[in-house]
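help with this record:
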Amino acid sequence: MVQNKKIHMAVHLEYYCRKCKKVVSARVHEYEPVSCFEELDKQLDSTNQPIIPFACPQCGTEQYPEDIVMYDITDGKMTRVLVDKIGSSKIPVVNGEETPYGNVMSKEEQAEYERGLAKIKDHFKEHEKEFWQNYCTFAVEKWQVVLKEINEKEYLEAYRTLGVPLQPSTANLHAWRRDAEKRFQSKTEKEIFWRAANQYIIHHEFLWTPTDSWPMDDFIRLYGRERVTYLTLHIPLPEELEKYRTIKLSQIIKKRTGETGVLFERIGQLGRELEKHKKRAGQLGQTVLELRKEINKLQEELAQTKRELARKPVVVDRQAEDARKIKEFKGLIRELREEIERLRNKLPQEEKEHSFEEDQMENKQQETAQPETDLSVLAGKTVLIVGWPNEETKGENCKIFWHDGDKVDIKLQALLKEADILVFLTRFGSHAAMWWLKEQAIEENKPIYFVKSRNVQRILQDIAEKQKTQ
């Protein structure tokens, strides 16, 4: 007697490495061998796969996986049996805000969804009587149409359930349909047959398959558009799953005429548009992750270059070799700064806002500040403040120039040459202006200060205090 082999399955996460031009695969779970697919389904339902980036063994590049793949390893061979896109409507990612996927659930959304799935069978039983009454009424009114959507397997199960003589094994679908038309003619007979024929689609498809994973195209192909549309609209679902019904409904809507047709068409358009946005979000997420990695790498190179520069002694009489190296380092710093700025411009821009409350707090603090600092050390000096637009002003002992700090222009270059002291407002000026100002301060041997406040009196007091301690 031959013993049936047990089913042995494993799950892999995979992605296509664009540098090596090959698929990278990593096994993340291996299921216990089981004797039937029902036991395997129970294991699948109780397993959550963590989605994390992993490195390509050839080039070392880390990347988030793109596909989740099921392999049959029953005979010691790896046979690919199922592939799904991670972040698709079938495989949403939980708590993946920092990942490059379009369909992302928060932990709260996932918990709500699982509550809905846990209640689905009890909820259906509670509304089952009303549902079958309406479903049978729908079928009787469209009897000739819906009878064509019953497949051979459903005819066979219904006839067996009702104890009706079966058709010969050679009978085709048309023969089954003709027999049903003749055999079930009264309203009651039609309703009894309809319930028996629809047990599988109700209990083993719509109620058994998780709502967000309903394969609408497959359902329509196997069971017909009229039945699938009705069930998608009317099958009882817990409140937690209603939004997934709407998403699935948008996938089966086809063009119709009339006012109702326009509404259904619009639902379909919105559903398709949502899918496009989710795919686009996934692509943009991947691009952002790659740009961030590149920026971090460049910033580390820049920091390393600065550390090397800091270790070099400062001398008044620079030798030719030292001058050449300093020039090379400055060129490298300039190139890195330009590259960081180019990459930063590709990222979604975040507007910097200065709230009214912050201004009020600054003024209040200024009013309650300690006695004013002696500003005599600034007598005759010219101070350039970069980061806020204003007109030329005069302090008690000094002249003050302003520049908005949005970019490095001719005006900023001219003001820098006249200034004795440089100030940069960190909350307002651009990164490009900040880096340029730092470089020029070193080149021109001028003091530079970085402050958050734009209160002139406070800026001058801070500078005076620091000038005294130097």
